[in-house]
TrEMBL record:
Gene Ontology MF term list: phosphoric ester hydrolase activity; zinc ion binding
Originating organism: Streptomyces luteoverticillatus
Annotated GO CC locations: cytosol
A Pfam family reported for this protein in Swiss-Prot or TrEMBL: HHH_8
Name assigned to this protein: PHP domain-containing protein
Limits of the Polymerase/histidinol phosphatase N-terminal domain: 101-181
Superkingdom in the source lineage: Bacteria
Amino acid sequence: MEPVEALERVAFLLERSQAPTYRVKAFRTAAAVIRDLPDEELRRRAADGSLTTLKGIGPSTAGVVTEALTGRAPGYLAKLEEAAGAPLVQGGLALREALRGDCHLHSDWSDGGSGIEEMARAARAIGHEWAVLTDHSPRLTIARGLSPDRLRRQLDVVAEVNAELGDGFRLLTGIECDILADGALDQEEELLERLDVVVASVHSKLRMDAPAMTRRLVAAVASPLVDVLGHCTGRLYGGRTRPESEFDADMVFAACARFGTAVEINSRPERLDPPRRLLRRALDAGALFAIDSDAHAPGQLDWQIYGCARAEECGVPADRVVTTWPADRLLDWAGSK
Ligand SMILES: [Zn+2]
Ligand SMILES: [Zn+2]
């Protein structure tokens, strides 16, 4: 295993196991430093112990590099691989097996930690045929939401990444677009039309009264521009907690079914949104679903298993899940709305 590969694998496994960002960052930074180093210099520094004099390389990352260069599996990595052998959650395997893509992930263009190509490569490496890049929209300034100009530039970058990656995987264009308080969408209509997939989510004024929130969500999911309703209740648990937004769930899910908008099953461990009782109601309403990672780092792409386990528990059939569809079917659906 190449040193860069070993460092990236360590980072992936740490992200997957919800390790704190600062711990992961050391390995991602070290990988970036090593990648730019001539092979000869790398070997010399590993031999004379001077790797740690490089900015961004510490004792543990230098250890991984040195061990990888000797041709052995680094001990630190071996330990992580062993822990990763155990499943993250019980159940969900059949649905996970059926997944072909992911409709919701972020890059460092907004609040993700990794570049676009790195995210695309990681999605391909876990077996996906496609994934949709959905960075935030302008109003979400704390997450560096993309202005129309930045989003236009991002479309060119996605095209370059696809050319680089070649056949067998497609990075699709998209956005996680804020649903404004009145149900309007936080991006230029012409741009939303050009994107392959639009996820629309509420990130502000989550506590508005139920009738207003119902109108807001129905307006968004009824829009022909919107394909997926992201994390519909906005609830958070774990560290930072936030109660569910209140709305008439049956009315919102009926609108999703009526207008062919998928209800997202958000797989982030602190979200797991919608909760099971609402997931069952969305199922009864006849809605489609998207099981999404909402990954902000490569290792988090593996979190889809959490959503799969919940979907399976609630009896969601694979064919109602758009993330099990081939890219062409997904694009037909999203384009025909
Ligand atoms: Zn969101
Ligand atoms: Zn997101």
